[in-house]
Amino acid sequence: MQKRIVLLGSTGSIGTQTLEVVLNLRESHSVEIIGMSAHSNVELLRKQADEFGLPQERICLSSKEPDKLLELAALPNCIVVNAIVGSAGLESTLAALKAGNTVALANKESLVAGGERVMQIARDNNAKLIPVDSEHSAIWQCIGENRHKDIAKIILTASGGPFFGYSKEQLKTVTKEQTLNHPNWSMGAKISVDSATLMNKGLELIEAMYLFGLPEDKIDVVIHPQSIIHSAVEFVDGSVIAQMSVPDMRLPIQYALTYPERLPSPLTQNEHKKLSLTELGSLTFAKPDYKVFSCLALAREAARHGGDAPRRLNQANEEAVELFLKSKINFCEIAEYITESIKS
Fold it and tell me: Which residues pair with 240 in a beta bridge?
């Protein structure tokens, strides 16, 4: 059966990798791009549209055409890949779900800001939410056909970012360039900063609560610098099931597009890129330092409070990251800014 894809955020990291996946699949497995949007990179958007044969009415700049963006999200009988950055992606998620579409969700802020409202609209319209984040995709795959009541806890893994093991004193002198240089993943600026502060893991914790219907205290965060185990699920009988692969976002993207099928990927066609446990030799794990990386503690607190707290946390974080990227505050002031914002 042909799969029709609307890609929102086509020029970002997830968007460009989604197009790579579609190029690899479209001839042999009937995967087709029928619409796409970008925030402001009009030159790349037009180039992508030409490559995939999209007419002008099927592309838009979300910064100038928000109504058209929602129209694209609501195109019938399609999979909407939401790779928009930040809380700006919420309305597109809602529009897609209201249309009964499957949403391949790479925009975690939709659930952080929208929470139970998003999940209820999905239920009301018999629409699916398929996670694209590697951690949530891993959890989703580990749960499989198991009953949710059999889950004891979720183990959400984090690379630790570029500053794993740093003290608060060391963090005072880190630069923007160091912050954006993630050791394992190639990502956009905003998520790279969030990964360095561990706020990204806090937002993912909140997302997991809504996606999998678990309270905050049933979600552990574990630092795993190699990013090979993408997350795990512990069941009530003590069994732990983990999903492993090399760190490559094209894998969870492809599974979200082809589910329930598993198809050969670019990785399986390259022996040098496949996971080899013997070459790895060992995997390591550590507890996160909630005092040094206080953004993670702030996210847990917001998760416990519920209500409007996650949305306010996310808004304050987006403001703080923007200030940091503009060099108006330093790295340590990100958490301070968020703390003051959510108090007011």
Answer: 234
HSE-CB at 29 with a 13 A cutoff on CA atoms is 17
Q: What's the one-letter identity of residue 72?
A: L
Report the SS3 class of residue 340. helix
In this structure, what token pair is assigned to residue 81?
Answer: 């890949």
79 φ/ψ angles, rounded to the nearest 5 degrees: -100, 120
In whole angstroms, what is the distance from residue 240 CA to residue 219 CA? 14
Helix (H), strand (E) counts: the chain: 15, 10
Separation CA 221–CA 201 (nearest Å): 8
Q: Are 285 and 222 in contact (CB under 8 A)?
A: yes
Longest CA pairwise span in the chain (Å): 56
DSSP element (H, E) containing 316: helix 309-325
Taking each helix axis from N to C terminus, what angle separates 199-212 and 294-305, rounded to the nearest 10 degrees? Answer: 30
The rounded Cα 95 to chain-centroid distance in angstroms is 19
Give the integer Cα–Cα distance in Å for 89 and 91.
Answer: 6
pTM of the model: 0.94
| Cβ(216)–Cβ(122) below 8 Å | no
Task: Give the span between the Cα atoms of 295 and 313, in whole angstroms.
Answer: 10
Cα separation, 179 vs 162, in Å, equals 7
Q: Can you tell me which residue has the tokens 């800001």?
A: 113
Tens digit of each residue's pLDDT (9 = 90 or more) over 141-198: 999 888 889 999 999 999 999 999 999 999 999 999 999 998 887 788 999 999 999 9
